[in-house]
Design a protein that fits this description.
371 residues; alpha/beta; five-stranded antiparallel beta sheet; globular
């Protein structure tokens, strides 16, 4: 779930979309990790792993607090958020002063409607069966991953909590303070910290696996941002550690227009109010981005909110080249079945062999050689 310029000079608010997951906000490139308090089991888990909840000990130039949170899904934003129109409906974040606990009224969006309001996010993108978390756990077990897992772009913490319940020592990382606060309150167990997808430092060999779901990786709009993410993953992983990712497939849009141009309308009811999102996708070939315009309306008379975001159009062979350059070996790269495909992945489903569909599923191993 994060914001950052896509390197094109255009305004881009990367709304982390879940296609159904958490969200976060990305500041400038470089390692930033910082943030807020901790709760019970998560706090103890952080201490046991040598971390402070809300502060992963970012290092390197640019380690600092960062930018506007953004969501729609799981993880990241980039600077240049563009939102027009005040949002006046009650969003019911829980508890006085704590994200996700108790009703609150927003008069203007602070950054991204869904990332700033995690309860609304989970209402818009329900995942009662924890399909994404189950798929990730299946990949980890199939390839013999160790217990220490980093969920990068953890959003509301649903998938991180599922991995924790499966017996893993999980750290959930995001840049959205609202999402992290909600995750600690509603999906406890993991250690939740603030970190930047474009560059993070938890120390060498701190994890046995990095999980990055719901197109979070595609908020790396530029080659430099993708290099920063993969270099950070390699540093964070023990030799032989896994990178598990799920995302849109850039190759799907070569010659296909079925997902472009025509608005997709989704409606849902939350706290007695009907909400509607109207989403239009377009391809920016110069920037190699899939751009999204989303218009939010509600039945309570609130003015509409317009948001703009984008994903990198990353092609399978291009992704393999980046992985090789950063000392990874791809064990699986296919278009499904997965948690966001039709039909969706089910327990026991075997990975596919093609990369033609609209989703990509990656399992890569960190090679032991010096890089």
């Amino acid at each position: 779930m994060m914001p950052a310029g896509a390197g094109t000079g255009a305004e881009v608010e990367v709304e982390v979309e879940a296609e159904g997951a958490g969200a976060g906000d990305i500041g400038a490139r470089g390692a930033h990790v910082q943030g807020a308090g901790a709760h019970s089991a998560g706090e103890r888990g952080c201490a046991a792993r040598g971390l402070h909840a809300g502060d992963a000990g970012a290092s390197g130039a640019g380690a600092q607090g960062a930018g506007a949170s953004d969501a729609g899904a799981r993880n990241v934003v980039a600077s240049g958020t563009e939102m027009r129109g005040p949002w006046t409906s009650d969003v019911g974040v829980s508890g006085p002063g704590a994200p996700g606990t108790g009703p609150a009224s927003l008069t203007r969006p602070a950054g991204n409607l869904l990332t700033d309001n995690p309860a609304l996010y989970e209402a818009r993108f329900p995942d009662p069966g924890r399909l994404a978390g189950r798929w990730a756990e299946h990949c980890l077990r199939r390839h013999g991953a160790g217990p220490r897992v980093l969920d990068m772009g953890c959003g509301t913490g649903r998938d991180a909590a599922h991995l924790h319940e499966a017996g893993r020592a999980v750290t959930g990382a995001d840049l959205s303070e609202a999402m992290l606060g909600y995750a600690r309150a509603h999906h406890p167990g993991p250690c939740y910290v603030r970190a930047d997808l474009h560059g993070f430092d938890f120390g060498p060999a701190a994890f046995d696996a990095v999980v990055c779901l719901d197109s979070s990786l595609l908020y790396c709009h530029t080659n430099a941002q993708l290099d920063g993410f993969l270099a950070s993953c390699r540093r964070a992983l023990a030799p032989g550690g896994l990178l598990v990712a799920e995302m849109r497939n850039g190759a799907y849009f070569l010659g296909r227009t079925d997902l472009l141009g025509t608005p997709a309308v989704h409606t849902f009811t939350w706290q007695g109010t009907g909400h509607r999102s109207t989403t239009t996708l377009s391809v920016d070939r110069t920037a190699q981005l899939l751009r999204r315009r989303r218009l939010w309306t509600s039945d309570d008379g609130s003015p509409p909110v317009e948001q703009h975001s984008a994903w990198r159009l990353l092609f399978p062979l291009e992704l393999l080249r980046f992985l090789t350059a950063h000392g990874f070996e791809a064990l699986e790269l296919h278009d499904g079945p997965g948690p966001r495909t039709e039909p969706a992945w089910q327990d026991g489903s075997a990975p596919g062999a093609s990369t033609d569909g609209d989703r990509l599923h990656l399992v890569a191993r960190r090679l032991n050689s010096t890089h």
